[in-house]
Predict the structure.
Amino acid sequence: MVAAFGGLIFGYDLGISVCASSITRIFGRRLTMLSGGILFLVGAGFNAFAQKVWMLIVGRMLLGFGIGCANQSVPIYVSEVAPYKYRGALNMMFQLAITIGIFVANVLNYFFAKMKNGEGWRYSLGLAAVPAVMIIIGAMFLPDSPSSLIERGKDEKAKQELIKIRGTSDVDEEFKDLVEASQSSMAVKHPWATLLKRHYRPQLVMAIAIPFFQQLTGMNVITFYAPVLFRTIGFGSNASLMSSMITGGFNALATFVSIFTVDKVGRRKLFLEGGAQMFICQIVITAAIASKFGVDGNPGILPKWYAFLVVGFICIYVMGFAWSWGPLGWLVPSEIFPLEVRSAAQSINVSVNMIFTFAIAQVFTSMLCHMKFGLFIFFAFFVLLMSGFIHKFLPETKGVPIEEMSVVWQNHSYWKKFVKSASEEANAKVDNSC
Ligand code: BGC
């Protein structure tokens, strides 16, 4: 019954992210963020003061609503307002916030769980109000993105915002590009149907493949599995605290590496380096577990060096994710979608991410029982596959203004046959009319 509700709530999160697509398009990114924050706050209140189970369910639904709205609006908002030279670094603040949130929540949960009166869960759930208030305050003071203002016909306000954000009145060129992008966007009445057109194939493929692959790195499984491993290899009753401190700490800290490098070395290099690092760690962790635990799961006495080896490679794995697929899984989709399909494509991205987070969390324990250490090989295989995918299909987007992104597909060896340049299209029309 509870699991079924879990599914229902999850489905609800997804539904919301699809609705949030229209909200971001019609009411703007800022209002979507603000409503997300308010719903998250009310949800945290319901959970913290719950007297009956239904209150927990309603609270959880509201949190889902909040998450759907935030994931839909924050990455595209940042990519739209950031100067393109620092777009990567600024967008990655989103992932930094996720990792700090996970870290703080895990550490606090550990202590709240020890509260003698058994009311610790109220604090754990209620503290979700803190990020909610931060989003609400932030969204109240933030300007809406110029693209979103133009999209809603507020050109003059958009220009003023652009001048303010860029800190210079020399914005004519960029403003012209934004207006052009908005004009082609307004011509599109049905973004969902448009996204299915051949012309948008690269964006559609990326909106599905990137979040799918991000979850198939196995990051969430490694972090779920880490406390068990840590306990087994001798961290005793403090295993879950140690695990969340160590993996959570590395996850947040390593995100800074990508913040500082993504706009210099580019997205592709980070994806490929992170992939190689995760692959090697998965193989080493598999070998380490296989040699000591075998398939019966009975390790006998484990030496100290073994504990260091496993913990060490888990940390290197987490760092690999934290400077590649973690932040890039949100950055790249948010910067490659043209305005006319941006909200629709982002909601596909968010939904696919959530579906696979959910699916993997559901099947992980039974996979572990059946596959034993083979579970890590399963994810290692996907890491290899996704690295090949990036190598062949993802063009570099570093330093390309978001309104000019179509050029990267036109110049790409594979995607160019799907995406014709404007001049080619014009020629094709002339040819057809002759
Ligand atoms: C992913 C989450 C993951 C988190 C961990 C995010 O980018 O979407 O599934 O738990 O990173 O750092």
Observations:
- The chain is about 80% helix and 0% strand.
